[in-house]
From TrEMBL:
PANTHER family noted in UniProt: ACYLPYRUVASE, ACYLPYRUVASE FAHD1, MITOCHONDRIAL
Domain Fumarylacetoacetase-like C-terminal residues, every copy: 15-218
Record-given protein name: Fumarylacetoacetase-like C-terminal domain-containing protein
Pfam families documented for this protein: FAA_hydrolase
Highest taxon of the lineage: Eukaryota
GO MF term set: acetylpyruvate hydrolase activity
Recorded GO CC terms: mitochondrion
Amino acid sequence: MEELFKKIVNPNNPKILAVGKNYVKHVQEMGGEEPPKEPVIFQKPFTSIFLVDKPQVLKLPQLGHEIHHEIELGFMISKQGKNIKKEDWLDYVGGYFLALDLTDRELQAHFKKQGFPWDLSKGQDLFFPISNLIGKEKIEDPYNLTLELRINDKIVQQDKTSSMYYKIADLICYISQFMTLNPGDLVLTGTPHGVGPLKQNDQLNGLLKQDDTILARIDLQIQ
């Protein structure tokens, strides 16, 4: 147990960070008017990761709550940094990925109403379906990508990453003022509009596209 403890209490261990309210139309569909004055940062646990490198089945929690889909572009930090300058952002990006930030919307609303943190609404098991890593050399411009999510062949979320309010440079600079970024840190950049509930037997197809090229995909059958 001592060896396990020493392994865990290591400030160089990676973390999963995410950004809320980073697409204007999503802010509006959630009842707001404009993105916040500073990025809204929260964390997801590693136990929520669900690598989807082939079609998979996703079992919803048995609580009976409404679980919402949020398709997102993510990136991985390549090296350690603190107080990183915006102009140096690309030096710290090791690659990109496609992900779903699944959200227990009922639980989130419950905690928000009380003014409490809503980690449990974001961090449940399987609430972070993620694609394989895309080398950054394969992406010409991370702000010229298309995020798309289809449910039962109907497009429910689709937008260009250029619609991102706080860009990747902004996020790396802002977060690193407070937290040291470590190699292997995963960062989600927010979801476009069109979020909504998942239902049993839904077929999800998430795509990250560069022009007509599919860079990554997430294919899930909901149970």
